[in-house]
Amino acid sequence: MDTSTTPRGPDVSVVVPARNEGETIVEVVRRLADTLEGRGWSYEIVVGDSASTDDTADRALSSGIPVRVVSESQAGKGRILTRALGQCRGRVLAFIDGDLDLSPEELPRLIEPVLAGATCAVAAKEGAALAARPRLRRIGSRVVNTLARVLLRTGLTDHQTGMKAFSGDALRDVLPEVVETGWLWDTEVLWRLRRRGATFAEVPVTLTRARGSGFRGLRDSVDGARQIMAMYRRVAVEPPVSLPGPTPARVTPPGDSRWTV
Fold first, then answer.
1. Global confidence as pTM
2. For position 252, what pLDDT does the model report?
3. DSSP string spanning 84-141?
4. For 194-224, how does the pLDDT look when each residue is reduced to its tens digit (9 = 90+)?
5. What pLDDT digit, counting tens, does each position of 86-129 carry?
6. Rounded to an integer, what distance in angstroms lies between the CA atom of residue 22 and that of residue 121?
7. In the CATH scheme, what is the homologous superfamily, with its name and number, of domain 1-100?
8. DSSP alpha helices (H): ranges in the chain?
9. Burial of 64 (0-12, 13-18, 19+ CB in 10 A)
10. Cα–Cα distance, 240 to 195 (Å, whole number)
11. Are 1 and 44 in contact (CB under 8 A)?
């Protein structure tokens, strides 16, 4: 049931960040709506249009699904996520990339641990399509994820997969501090939540296809490593911060989520 216009806000707000995803955006929002309706959650769907030069926004608005479009004139996944999620009112704030590399039907497996008490649920890619990605991209991703896990102490194996769910209160608390406007947005948000004592659930999801991307292998890996090192250096000078309200208790989420504390 779509309750995006009710004063109290919906159970779940989902942002779909999209740049030139006119070919897939209608299918994404329709499948999201069907999935959320099936769970009985009140929800809103927001398409985050990241400087698209195609008809992504128009197609989303004409999909027959109640959606809002939040647009940015400057490209950058982190930039549009900060803006769009900052305008959402859900108890749970989630996002899924608009390219259909991940199935919208898997999103509830991330929402459920957050409703059960986790601060954040993070998708971890698996499946044959993952192995089909270019070798340099796989190596670069492994390097960046290892650095983030070890230096930033996230305990996670995958930081960049384009599907996550957050406690709305916790994410709204950190968004004003986030400076990353590109593909490392996820890592910065997870680091800032971890410093506040967040509880994470890591949920395996199937990568359904391996499309080309803007990831530039070695160049982006080096850039990502430098930015993670900069975050690590800030750990030494920035005092820890507490999450608003009580610290979430460790709970047993449904399904095969892997918990880190």
1. 0.84
2. 40
3. HHHT---SEEEEE-TTSSB-GGGTHHHHHHHHTT-SEEEEEEESHHHHTS-HHHHHHH
4. 999 999 999 999 988 655 455 455 566 677 7
5. 999 999 999 999 999 999 999 999 999 999 999 999 999 886 55
6. 28
7. Spore Coat Polysaccharide Biosynthesis Protein SpsA; Chain A (3.90.550.10)
8. 25-39, 56-61, 77-86, 108-115, 128-131, 135-151, 168-174, 185-195, 218-235
9. exposed
10. 6
11. no
Question: Is pLDDT above 80 for 256?
Answer: no
Strand order in the sheet with 258-260: 67-72, 43-50, 12-18, 92-96, 163-167, 120-126, 200-206, 258-260
Q: What is the pLDDT of residues 111-120, one digit of tens each?
A: 999 999 999 9
Written as six digits, the tokens of 211 are 């499309």
Tokens of 55: 């008809």
Structure tokens at 101: 């590399």
The helix/strand/coil state of 240 is: coil
Q: Are strands 43-50 and 67-72 parallel, antiparallel or unpaired?
A: parallel
Residue spans per domain, the chain: 1-100, 112-261
Residue type, 122: V
Looking at residue 229, its amino acid is: M
